[in-house]
Amino acid sequence: MAAYGTMDSAILGLPYGLTQDCFIESYPAAEAVTPGRPVYQTPGTVTSVHSTYSSGDVFMGIAVASQISHIGDVGTYAIYDVVNVLKKGEIWVQVAAAVADAPKAAYANSSGLFTTTASGNYDGGCMFRTNQATVSGLAVVEVNGIKLVA
Fold first, then answer.
1. Domain ranges for the chain
2. Which residues contact 35 (CB under 8 A, 6 or more apart)?
3. Of the four, 44, 60, 119, 149, which is 20 to 30 A from 110 by CA?
4. In this structure, are residues 49 and 70 in contact, taking their beta carbons and an 8 Å threshold?
5. 23-148 has which CATH code?
6. Residues in contact with 109: Cβ distance below 8 Å, sequence separation at least 6, in sequence order
7. What number is the average pLDDT over the span 96-108?
8. Handedness of CA 115, 14, 77, 30 (dihedral sign)
9. What is the 3-state secondary structure (H, E, C) of the chain?
10. Percent of the chain having pLDDT more than 70?
11. Contact 129, 143 (CB under 8 A)
């Protein structure tokens, strides 16, 4: 009888820990969305989310990993798919640069990666909870609700 291996502890878009309080809501995707990336909502379009920031958008949270498998886009949410969005809790994200001395504020860049650099990036009110020495590695970010990105 075959045995299953242990699950990876760090998967892009996977909520961190099972004992934490988290809040997840679902929205249709206005465009393709990658799990572990921030999602935004344009005021006046409260029924959908998108991953490309536009001026005046509201940070809604981070897309949660999906096991939906489309032939050409495994692991992503296609347009009109229902996206599960972590609005409060901790989740694994990809970093744009090394992170040290967590906890530190986490800012999203235009590619959806997270960094400690505020200048030129989007403030969703998130906080790094773990360190990551490797660029493009995974780190845990705490999300504390929706926020108007200024």
1. 23-148
2. 12, 13, 63, 64, 65, 66, 75, 76, 77
3. 44
4. no
5. 2.40.300.10
6. 96, 115, 120, 121, 122
7. 92
8. negative
9. CCCCCCCCCCCCCCECCCCCCCEEEEEEECCCECCCCEEEECCCCCCCEECCCCCCCEEEEEECCCCCCCCCCCCCECCCCEEEEEEEEEEEEEECCCECCCCEEEEECCCCCEECCCCCCEEEEEEECCCECCCCCEEEEEEECCEECC
10. 87
11. no
Q: Quickly count: other Cβ atoms within 10 Å of residue 58's Cβ.
A: 16
Q: How long is the chain? A: 150
Question: Model confidence over 107-124: pLDDT tens digits?
Answer: 999 999 999 999 999 999
Could you tell me the two tokens for 130? 């773990």
More confident residue, 18 or 88: 88
Asked whether the predicted pLDDT for residue 25 surpasses 70, the reply is: yes
Angle at 76 between CA 9 and CA 21, to 5 degrees: 45
Q: What are phi and psi of 130, to 5 degrees?
A: -135, 160
Instruction: Give CA–CA dist 143/140, Å, rounded.
Output: 10
